[in-house]
Each structure stands twice: as C-alpha cells, then as structure tokens.
Design goal:
By secondary structure, this protein is mainly β. Strands 1-2-3-6-8-9-10-11-12-18-17 form an eleven-stranded mixed sheet, covered by helices on one side. Strand 2 and strand 3 form a beta hairpin. The longest helix is centred in the C-terminal third of the chain and has 15 residues. The two termini are about 40 Å apart.
Length: about 300
Amino acid sequence: MAAGGMLLLAACDQLAGSAPAAVTAAASAVPASPAPFGTAFQLPTTRAATATPAAASRGTVCAFPITLADGRAYEAARYHFIWQQGITTQQLNTRAGTLQLEGQVTIAAGERSVVILHRADTAATLEVTDLWPPGSTLLIDPLTGASETRRVDGTIARQLLLDAIGDTRGMPAYLDIASVDRQFDAAGSFILRITTNTAHEGKFIWSFQELEIGIGEERIVQRTLSSGKQLNLYYPTKGKYSDYTGTVVVQANTVTWPLQEGGLLPFGARSATSAAAVDKTEAFPAELFSSLWELAAASCG
C-alpha cells in the first residue's frame, strides 16, 4: 500500500468470471445502417405528442461497427443533441427508438454527445446531470448497465455501474447494491463510491456486515460489527489483510473511498454478512469503454 493508504494495484480482475467485453446475452435487433459506417446522417425527427417534452433532437448521428473480445460484432452510434435550459424533458431519436432525456431546469444548456453500443435494449429514459456537462460525451453499454463520461479533452470524468435492485433474496435493502461509480478530478485522482438501496437503520442483526470495493485483485472492506463499531480493512493481492489507513466516508446509503492509484483498472463491489454473501456487481468493463471511445473518435471525428 502506498503512503496515505493509497493502493498499488495489480492489473488483473477477480470480480467477474469473464473478460470485461464478453457478451453474456443475445443482442437486440438494430436496423441496418442507411449509410456506410462512419458517415454522418440525419435521423427522422418527430415532435413530442404533448407540449411537455421539447421536440426531438435533430443532432447529427454517426454509426460505426465494433467487434468485442469474443469476436462478436455490433453497431454503435454517436448522437449529438443540444440541451435547452429551463426544460425538464427532451427527446432524442436513436437507432433503437426514441430516448427520453430528463434533467433539472438548472442544468446548463449546450451541446452534448452520447455514444450507445446497440447490443441490448436501451432504457426508456436517460438523466442529464451536472456530471454530464456541455461539450462532454456519455458512453453507454445497455447490456451491462455501465456508462462512462468523457470530458471535452477526452479524459474520463466518471464511470458508473448500475446493479439491479431486489436481487438479494430477501436480505435487507441496506445491503442491496444499487450502483458503484468512480469519479475523477482533473489531476487524475478519484473517488470510488458504493450506493445501496437504502441506509441502515436500527439494530445490527449479524456478527458483522460489510461493503467491499475491489480494484483489480485488491479489495478494501468497510465492516460494521454488531456493536456498531466500524473496521476498515485492506486485502492485498497476496498475503494477509491489514487495517486500511486511508480515508473512508460513510454517509446515509453511500460509502466513499478517495484514491490516487488504480484508475485504469476494472472495479466492482460486494456486500456480505457474517452468515452469507449478499450482493455482487460485475466488474466495470474499462477496456470495452476505452475501445468504444477510440472507435467513436476514429470513425466519427
């Protein structure tokens, strides 16, 4: 462990049993491209059925092919749109249908891009937040529930991995992982955050319960004993665990770790009790998003 509790991390991932870019489900059908890959074209646009959403975006679309690590090929596309400040809903026409964009009235106006890997159905709505500012690009893989936000200069601002709610076989909601995300500052330092479905309230049932973040083959565990005492533990790639001396912030239904090393490695999360494992995410597919970003830039400029 580096000074200040920062991690020196290995390049392997033990959180998921398959390569980050592996396909685990059949892809949804996507219409054939009306223009050669890499050619910008305009999708048909429609006005919203009511006055509440803004008219569908007329931004330029660029489709391109991508072949994943398992050899399967899919279509991806980059879409540009201009968010209009003062509204809360806007529509974007994509290759797989209309996507509803939602955001607060205070979200800054301006052009944004979204790159979608069309290998599964896209969620019906997509939230526009301050973490997706004007000029930036949001990349989405609907199959894994993962997304990545890139700044104007191409650096990573945020990586988000969503996890299904209610998949803990009746275990408490405060151990049900909703998401795990990594947010970077301009200098490359970052935080890792686990968000659970609810915050813990009341007594502790087991001898201990814990939330664990993993980066590569190393793990940091936030463990709470039945007495309410909290322990922070570090598990290296090899050898015995030790006390984790870095910063840990526990607030409501989130646990956050500020870190400086391992920003390029896959990450994921687990929850458990002294009796059994409870929830587990897949590893964030970092290599997949790196390839998706590079292909979008090469194909669409």
